[in-house]
Structure formats: C-alpha cells, structure tokens
Amino acid sequence: MEEIDILIIGAGVVGLAIAREVSASDRRVVVVERYNSFGQETSSRNSEVIHGGMYYPVGTLKASFCVEGRRRLYELCKKYTIPHKRTGKLIVAAEDSEIGDLEKLYALGQGNGVEDLALLDKSSMKKIEPNIKGAHALFSPHTGIIDSHGLMKFYLASARENGAMAVFNAEVISIEKTVSGFGVDVRNGNETIKVSTRVVINSAGLDSDLVAEMAGIDIERYKYRLHYCKGQYFRVNAAKAKMINGLVYPVPKPKAGGLGIHATVDFAGGMRLGPDDEYTGNRNKDYSVDGSRLDKFFRSANIFMPFIAPDDLSVDTSGIRPKLQEKGAEFRDFVIQDGSNMGLSGFINLIGIESPGLTASPAIAKYVSGLIKNILN
Hints:
Blueprint: E1 2-9, H1 13-22, E2 29-33, E3 49-50, H2 61-80, E4 84-85, E5 89-93, H3 99-112, E6 118-121, H4 122-128, E7 136-140, E8 144-146, H5 148-161, E9 165-168, E10 170-177, E11 182-188, E12 191-202, H6 208-214, E13 227-236, H7 238-241, E14 247-250, E15 262-265, E16 271-274, E17 278-279, H8 294-302, E18 313-323, E19 335-339, E20 344-351, H9 357-376
Parallel strand pairs: 1-2, 1-12, 2-9, 5-14, 12-20
Antiparallel strand pairs: 3-8, 4-8, 5-7, 6-7, 10-11, 11-12, 13-16, 13-17, 13-18, 15-16, 19-20
Helix pairs in contact: 1-5, 1-9, 2-9
C-alpha cells in the first residue's frame, strides 16, 4: 500500500498546475494519468489563447480566475521563458446591430477588472487590423497566445523538482472513503497499485464527472454530468495568414457552445479558424475533422475577413469541451469544491474545466492549494 498526502487524477494543464503549487510544501504528491504523456485531451486541443476575462458573469470563478490567471501566466512566462506572445484581440461587430453586444462585453470586462479594454470605431479598428471588415470592435490588448505544451512541460518539471511524482499509463479504477482519507486502486499496465491518500484531487477533464461518480457522488443530483461539445479547426494558407496581426473574434452568440469561429495566429506565423461547437450527444472521443464543414467555416470567417476564399482552407485538428451546461442552456460556472457536504471531505472536484481553464490554471492551482491547507490542517 502506497501512502501519500495528495493524489491528483489527471495530468492536463490544470492538474499539473495544481501539482506544482501543492508540492511546494512538504507533501507527498502523486499525479496519475491514464495516457502515456501529459495533456493528451482538452489541454492540447484548443486555441492556446491567454484570455482577457470579459466573457464571464461578474463574480463567477471563470471571471475571477481568468483575470488573476492571466496576470500570473504572463509573469510565469516571462520568468521561466515559456513561449508566449501578447498579440491583442479584436472582437468585431459585423454590423451596427451588434454594437450593443460589444458594449455589454465591455461592461462585463470592466466589472471583472480587465485592464485597458477599448471600444473602437471602424477607423480605429483598421489601425490595428487593416484587412478586417466590420462596423466596430472591442479591443483587448492583453489577450495573447501561449505554447500550451511548453506550459505543461514547465508545470510538470517544476512539480518534480519539488518532489512530486507523475505516473503515466495509470488509470484510477476505484475510490473508497476511509477513516484517514481515501483508498484508491490504480491500474498501471498489468499491475494494480493500492494507494492510501489523505486528499484526492479530481482533475480528470472529460471524465471528471465519472471519477466523481466512482467516489460515490450522485452526479445527477449535483448536476455534475458533463456534455461533450466538439470543436473543429481549419488552417488558413500561409499567404492569407499574414493578413492579420493578432486574434480576431466575432461577437459571441447567446447560449452557444463556444465563442464563435475565430481567427488565431501561432508562433510560426500561421493562422487557424475555429473552433465551431457541436454537442455530440455521446461520450465518444472522436477527433476527426469533417471536411464538409469547410464552407461553414469560410462563410463565418468571410464576414469579417473578406480576403479569405474557400481554397485557402484545409482541415486541421479538433478538441472536445467538457461542458456542464447542455445545448442551449444557461451559463454554468466551473465546479471547484471539496466534497464535505457529500460526506467526502478531502475529495476535491474540478468539473467542467473548459475555457478559460488554460488561462486560469495558475489561479485555480492557488485556490485548490488553499482548500487543501484547510483540509490537512
């Protein structure tokens, strides 16, 4: 029986950020990951954007952790030379009828403490992105991009330097409450390892609801059931990719599964369009890209990027969002809480950690560290 203090289930960006944070004290910390490396699902299949924080209702975890996380992330990137770029971002109103929506986003940003947001008229917008078409825009100068693989590699290396252990090809198959904490069975190849831990951190991403259920939580009662929302990307050819300088987004639609098909740049000077949003209605982790969606992507992008032609696009990649809200439902916040009210003190759930989870990762890690101190002390 392996005896430890903290078991973290899931080596995505949030699980690794937590590992780095909580291993800084003299705790025995182990991260288990069922794949053969870190960040194999949502953490590596996204737009790699450092978000500003103006999309989320004031007072929510998504809002506060996004803003705090962004600031911390830029500090980490600068200090530890993690590849990143403060590109800035335009949210473009294609028509005058969308100006009110921009103003609402601006107000949300102000309420969330997002710095230096600016509402721009057409001429001011053109100074930032000369090739973009639109009536008005909201400019977020502190939005950027980050090498998510580089960030996760840093989190893992830092956690290991602190004494944490990461075990790959290790899948949790049972969780039982004990007097001192939890007994967890972990399948590692042909071997089953029994672990006794004082704290379990459920950071299992797309299957975090099932891990909670494994621990005995009624996920229907607590509304923890996840709904997979797939997002696909198309790549823009190199010549057209040079026609924007930063990130360009449309005005988001109410109750949509994402922020709308947008244009993101990368460190190599390339450009992608996406992701779209498709609730799959199942738990299949199908990462294929449907080439027949090309026309949809073209039409969405062509509204604010008239220089794009269908022949400029090719299939790229896809990802799956672990969403707590069903299709067409109202906003749902992150679930980040200890299971004390369920008779599972020391079992910390992180469920529905979709965007802005990457940006929020250092802030989430700090918050979870505080929860653990309360439990262990």
